[in-house]
Every structure is written in C-alpha cells, then in structure tokens.
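agent> call fold_tool(seq_1)
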Amino acid sequence: MGELSKRTMALWALWLLLVPPGLFLVYQTFPPPEIDPWHLTAYVLFFVITCLMPMNINGASTYLVQWVTIAVFLKYGIFVEILISQLTMLIVLTRSRTDEPLSMRIPFNSTMFFLISCCSGLAYLAAGGQIGSLNLVHIIFYGLIFQIVSVIANQIIYYSYDRFTGSKAKFFSVDAMWDFALTLLVFPYAIALYISEAYIGIPALLLLGIPFLIMTFVMKMYNNSEQITSDLKKAGEIGHQLAERLSTDEVLDQFVIQVSKMFKADYAYVIDYRDGNLLMLRMYENQEFEKFSVPPVRYHKGIAGNVIVTNTPVIYRKKSEWKDIVTGYIPIDTESIMCTPIARNNKIEGVLLLASRKKYAFVSHQLKILDILSTYFAVSLEKAGYVQKAIAKSERCGLTKLYNYRYLDKALEKSMEKVNTGKIDNLSLVMMDIDHFKGINDKYGHQSGNDILIELARILEAEVGREGIVARYGGEEFVIMFENYSKDLALLFAESLRKKIEKHEFLLQRDLDKERSTENVHITLSIGVSTAPDDSDEPNALIRNADRALYIGAKQAGRNKVAAYVK
C-alpha cells in the first residue's frame, strides 16, 4: 500500500473518530435555539452565493464567508455554525485547484473545520458570550474572541499537519497574515449583519449583502485586470529575453523555460509541424529538459493535431475533457492542458503544449498571453536563423564550406586558453598543403582544382568527425585542430590521412580540352604537426611552428611526408 493510501485511510479513521460523534455531542450539549426555517434558508442561500464568488489574494483564491458564519454563530450557536462550516468546506473543495485527491482532502478539511468551530465556539462561551444576545459591547468583545481563536486554531492545525507529513512548515506565513487581516476586515460586516437581521429580518441580508457582493465582484474584476496586466508585463520581458538570443537553440530553450515558469506548468513541449508529421523538438518536464525520443505522429492526431487543423488554441481544465482525444506522449499524471499554435508569416510551424498535474491550472486569459508569447517566439526564432546564417557565412569558406581562417583564429585562441589554465592537457595542429597544386590548375583548369578542394574538404570532415575542427587556411592549405591530442597521436592521424589521400582517386573533368573528357587523378599532401604546450603556449606561434614543420620538414624533404615541429 502506498504512502498516499495509508495517509488517506488514517484521515478517514480520524474523521470517523471525531466528527460524527463530536457533532452528536455538540447537539446534545449545546442544542440550537428555535429556528425560523425561512431565515435560516435565506442565510444558507446567501452563504452559498458568497462561496461562489472567491477573490484572488496573494495568488490564492480567498472565500470571504466569515462574515456570514460569524452572524450564523451569534444567532444559532455552535451546532448550526458547524453545519454551515462543513458546507463551506464542500463548496471550497469542489472549486479549488489542487492535485491532491478529494478522498484525502474531504476528511482532513472536514475534521479541521469541525475542530476550528468547536475551539472558537467554546472559547466564546467560556469567555461569557451568549447565543442570541443583542448587547453590542458583548457581541463585539466576545465575537472578536470567537474570530481570533478561529484564525489561530486554523494556523495551528495546518502547521501541525505540515510538520507531521514532513512538509515545509512556517507558522507565521504570508497566508496567515492575510487571514488575520481579512478577519479584521469582515468582522464589522458580520456584527452589522447579525444585529440588522435581528431587528428587520431577511431584508437585512439584501441591504448589507448586495453591496458586499458588488464590492466583492468589483474587487475580483480588479484583481483579474491586475493579473492580466502583470502577465502582459512578464510576456514583454520574455519577448526581450528571446530577442537577445542569437541561436535558434538558445531561443527554443529560453522560450520553454520562461513560459513554463510564468504559467507554473509541470510539463512543456514544443512540437514541430513538418511534412505532415508532428515531431517533438523540446521536452521540459519538472524544470529539466528530457532527451528521450518520442516517435512522430500524423499532424491531425491528438490535441496538438486538433490545434493545427482548427488553428485555434485550447484549454482543458481536467483529464476527463481530453483523455479521449490524446494521441502521442502525455505524462500519466497530467490534468490541465493549454495548447496553442505557433505561426510564422501566417503559416503554422508548430505547437506549444503546456500541462499541469493540477486541475483548473490554466485560465482563459492566459491563452491570449500565450498567443503573444508564441508570436515573440516565432519572430525571435526567425531572427536567430538569419543571425546564424550570417555568422556561418562570415565563418565559413564559400567554396569548401569548411571553417575559414577567421573562425580558426578565434577557436585556436580559446583552446590555447584551456591549455594554459589546465582545462585540457594538449592542443595539436595538423597543417597540410596539396603538393604541386598549381600544376593541376594549369593542366585541368581552375574549376577542376576547385573540385579537388571540395572533395578533399569532405574527406577531411569524414576523417575528423567530432574529434576536432577542420578549416581551410587559404589556397590549397588546410588545418585541423585537435584538443587533448598529444603530438604522437596527431602524427599517427596525419600519417594515416596522408596514406588515405595518396590512394584516393579524384575524378576530374579536363576543362581545357575541347572534348572535356574525364580522368582519375591522384594527389599527395605534405603535412606539418605542432603541439601545445610542448612547442608553444601562444596561438600564433603554434600556427607558425606547424607551418615551419610543413615546409621545412615535409616539403623540403621531398613532399608527401609528415613532419613534426622540432625546436
């Protein structure tokens, strides 16, 4: 049996032990006075309406029902107030957004509300308060005792439960301060409601209740407006952060991280729409990127597919709304889902899907905010693509598509710094030059010479792979840079490469012939090797040493040779 099941059973056992017998005992000890059913019905109806209009305070839904429950207690006593509090509990639980199961929350909250009602009611009576009294001084003094004890008992129970379950417990939290402030705010309304109802009856509920509900509604709308303004401000900040990123990967990662944080999503996925398929680009779960692969699905399948087909964002507030739609990967504990298309130049490029383990985790105005963010994302992604192309163009050789001298110079400087700071042990340069390349150009034409350079570039890339950096240094010269390659290892690589090129057949077209016939041509390489820190600890000196080994050690020794720099 899991820990959650054990805790649920313990809570239900505690509830059975305390609440039903406790309620019977309260009824026998403190029976309610004679009750006018119409008055009580009016109270309950008004109470339910108040419960259905929560306010958002400090990021949490707050139900301002204390002013009704205090008035009910002052008029009818502990037993009726307990019943009203239990009704509060049921309404709040059905409307609250939490991932804890109702099977656990109902016994815990029912027991907690029962204990709070008993503690505050008994404190009121023990202090000398009387049910049904109209003495204003007594009502205010003893009523305030009732309400303060209620708040303190609530905090003690929550604190004790958190300590018992191992959760982070803090007695004087921000929520506790808000509870106390709201107590002082609604207490005068509760006293006014109780006294007015005692003298003029049910109309008092309308005279005091309607303005209170209107005030609550206005404050709720104001809070919603403030939340939208705050979200728009955050969206603008995220947009600026995305615009500062210079690569598409950085834009993707930053977008996923910031959107997940803003909407408090447990899971976030960026899904690419390409060639009629949906392909997972980013998986961000529990504040970490996941790398396991998810097979692609057809574009019209599942939640993401529906969003693409209809070009309409959606919100699902609980699993029952989407469980029959989903196709593809969704974590099993997901409840709420928010999904929006990502469009660029009026064309849908993909989908963003946010998910939460909580029910009702997302609200409708967030879809519009998410749409704005998706626009920022698409524009930033396009900009980053242009920047990457421009960088690639400035760092690549236009003919061979290898890195050029400018890029090699920067990379060499960074790698040499790693050597000097001890982050890597060795840095080797392998510099090579095609032997008698001018003769090839003269015999076959410059285009044929270019063909050799291009094919040689592809061979070098294949041989080096991810072990090093290949660059065209200029003309027919190429350089390979290896981190953590000793001189002996670099020489072994260079000799193996020399033999491979010597045997390789390059198919050339005779551009200078009238018939433009083809011919297999062999070339050879002269290669020089220099290594840091053995030969130098300066980037430019390392290049000069490799160049010296190439020309003095290999070229002058007869070409088609490998030579190491010797001090």
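agent> call fold_tool(seq_2)
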Amino acid sequence: MADYDLVIRGGTIFDGLGHRGEAADLAVKDGRIVAIGQIEGKGREEIKAAGRIVTPGFVDVHTHYDGQALWENRLAPSSNHGVTTAVMGNCGVGFAPCKPHQRDMLVAVMEGVEDVPEVVMTEGLPWNWETFPEYLDVLDTRELDIDIAAQLPHSALRVFVMGERAADHEPPTAEDLAQMRALTTEAIHAGALGVSTSRNLMHRTKAGELAPSLHSEEDELIALANGLRDAGDGVYQIIPRVMGPAADEFALMRRLAEASGRPLSYSLLQMPTGDPDEWRVSLDGLSAARSDGLPICAQVAPRPVGMLYGLDLSFHPFSLHPSFRPLLDRPLADKVAAMRDPAFRAQLLSERPEDSNPVSVKTVQAFRYAYPMGAAPDYEPDLADRIDTRAAALGITAEEHAYDLLLEQDGKALLYQPGANYRDGNLDAVHAMLAHPGTVVGLADGGAHYGMICDASFPTFFLKRWAADADPDQRIPIETAIAALTSEPADMVGLGDRGRLTVGAKADINIIDFAALRLHNPSVVNDLPAGGRRLRQLADGYDATIVSGVVTYRHGRHTGAVPGRLVRGARPLAA
C-alpha cells in the first residue's frame, strides 16, 4: 500500500519564498504537501525529477476568465504556462451582479474593454445568477484545470444598482452609494477576494462608450473602500487613469487604501506617449506609501504589453477601412484572395480607418510602430525592423509594406506592436519596475483580448528572459524570480495556502526543464463558443503541472484531470 498519493524524487526544489534551490524529494497526500527531504515511503504515483527544477504552481492575479470558467474546463492559455491559480474579475468588468435586462450592457462592456466577442458570450454564458453570491455559487459547481478566485467588478455593480443611469453620466445618489457599499461587503463575505475598478479612459464599449466605472467620482470609489472596511477583508484592485498627473492619481489611491484599511493593488506601465517620467513618479509614490505602512502594491508586466495585428485577428492596419468591412467575418482564405486583387489593393490603400470608437481608430493607426513577428517570438525587436523604418528603406509607404507583410504565410502572418513598456526601445524601465520591492508580476490578462493580445505567457517569458537570458547586471536570481510568480502574488491577494513548497501548503507544483524553457509563436484557433477565435501560445519545458496533488499537464498536454475549484476568500497557510 502506498504511503503517499504522489512523490516527486530528486528535483531541485525552490520553495517559492526566495530561498536557494535544494535537491530533495517531495511527498503529497490528500492535496497537501506532507514531507520534503529524503523520503523513504512510496507514492501511488512517482515522478523522477532529476535535472529539473520543482517550483510552486504560479499564481496569476490579473486574469479575465469570468466567462471562460463557465463555458469550458481548461483555462488556457494560462494553464499552459504553469499557472495553477488565477484571480479574475479585474479592471472593474465582469458578469455579476446582473439583472436579466442588464445582460446586454455587461456583454457590451466586456466586448469593448476585454475583446471577448459578443457572440461568444451570448452562446457561452448560462446567466443562471443575479447577485454576486449566486454567481460564486455557480462557479462553485465548476471543475477546472486550475483554481480560480473572483473579485467584485465595479462596472457590473454600478449597473446593478443604478441601471441605465450607470452609463448616462449621472452621479449616484446617497442611497446608491449605500447599496454599493453594502453589496461590496456582501460579496467579500460570500468569498470575493476583493473589488476592482478602472479609471482608464481606453476602457470603452466597442461603440466607444466609456465603461460604467469611468463615470465614478471619488465618493463612489470611497464607498467601495468602505465596503471592504466593513467586511474587514479583501483587496482593492484599480486600473488608474494614465496620461495625467501621476502624483494626483497616486494620491487618490492612497486615500482609497486609507479609507478601506485594506491592501490596494494597481497596474503600472511605462506609457508610449505623454510624460516619460510618469512611471517613476508612481514608483516614488509607492515607496513613500509603503514606508508609511500602507499596503499598496503595483502589478507590472515583465515585457512590453504588445498588441498583435493579423488578418484573422481583431485588428490589422485595414480592418476599419470601409472596403474591408464586408470581409471582416469571412474566412481567412477569402480575405487573402480579395487582398491579392490589384484593384482591391489600390482601393484599400486609398482609404483611412473609420469607426465610432476613437480608441479603435488609434489602435489601427499604431500599426506603423509594429514589427513582423518572425519564426520565434521576439519581444525586444530592433528599431530597424519597425514597419515605418523598413518601409522608408524600401521607398514605399508604411501601409504598402504592412499590406505585403500581412499576406505572408498565406495570410497567417502576425505583426507585433510593443505599446507600453517599450518607449525607449529596451526593457530597462521594466527591470526597474520589477526590482522595486512593492511590485508583483501581473497584467497577463488571460481570458481576455482573444484576438489582440496573448500575454498569458508572461510566466514563461519572465523566467526565461529575466532569470536565464538577462545580462548579468540585470539578471534576476532564479529563486527570486520563482518567488515573484508564486508566494508574492499569492500573499498579495491573501492566498497564503499556496505559492510555496512547504509542509502543509496546497500541492500546486510545477516540474520544469529550465534549460528547455521556450515560447512558441502565438497562433489562432477557433475553439470558443459559436466557433469564436482566440490566440493561444504554447511553451516547451513544462514536464508536469500539478494542482491539488493531481497531475493536470504532462509536457504541455492536458491529462484530462480537472481538480481546479473556486477559491472563496483569503486562505491562510494550514498548520
């Protein structure tokens, strides 16, 4: 009879707490780590891990699987990159609370802000809830490949309380504010990890209307903070306003943290335009706040937050041109055939993008700052390879060059536009943000931007780029990098029972061939509800991923196991 459910033998164990790796065995029983060291007993299943690193499962605190967790049981692409717990409900968007007549409004917001197609949500969402606790009850029935945790989204809450007034620039009444405060407390008591909001003016519906949370003034944001204070638990997650005085925005976040008495997490990026020192001002404010004892933390991306253009994606240089619109929903082969017609080419090149959403127009126009994505993903491209630079060298317009590039690989070619975090043509700003003691790796956005962004591969990129390939003066020690993906984000959201390989911790584990770690190029698959398409990105190097002691992935392939469940509320480490 086996002594343990699982024994991992001979790997180099990194505990996720920043300590150096040590060769040891690890035993699991009933979903928990029960022994680490030289283990004499036998496991019902045993994995040889010599020459491999053994890490805690990765914790991703910024995802949008609010819908995907209801229509499928694999939360890819995050689960392809060692993630074993995903926190969703970020950016103030989600699907609960929601009254039946409000569903279209929440779908429109999610479609515009997070690029989840309307038809996918219409087909995939069961809508068998109204309140946020009821939504959690539905999630509680799901069996998934990873664990999930939810936050209360402000835009949904605002619509639930105020109805049409939520999107009509109307201020909330005192009664509205009291109800939002009470419902925030109710959500935390039901198991939400926190409340989220957005002040980013780019967060709009597809038609260009601002997300409901963007109409909120400070009194409403304070009402949410007071709801957390009343609950005595939870994290306040905020997308701050960018392209404005960073000091003023940080001062607001300080006031929210002070009002709630709870941790606050915000997104921090180096923006491509505007004040070049904005991110530094925010880091200075973060240092001061933490010195004053305020538990504020910034989520930072380990590479450029880049958008992909392609004929089969949400945007490309000609997707908003009048002559291309009839082709938008046509098969890729039809688009390619039309674009190879010289007359169509001339017509398309004579037009300009047109759309009611100014953000969409700017997104399309930014194609000239994109780069061809080659045989392997390059997230630090050389300025000489930028489309406008290449076009100038060829003596043609950027539009003409992009047109030709899009037709390569039978229309499957991708263009990569590194927006945020690449203003200087390097990752020095990223390194400075990652090195700050008040930041965590985040913003991967798994479950969102199905046809625009594929950043759920952040964990793999972070490990390889910063712990293996970086120059010595910027290299992050592997034990530090692993802590940044595990215990640090877990602790930030109150999940102290995971993100560490210690006796008593939840048995979420990765076994990684560190030398073989490699990212594949993103590719398009049509496997969402109603045949919707999404980007996926695979990786080499993950020998096994384990959730609650059960192997879910072997060498990148799903085993069929779905031990992942909803996590309700903060989880201290079990004794």
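agent> summarizing second result for user.
The first helix runs from residue 68 to 71. The radius of gyration is 23 Å.
agent> awaiting next instruction.
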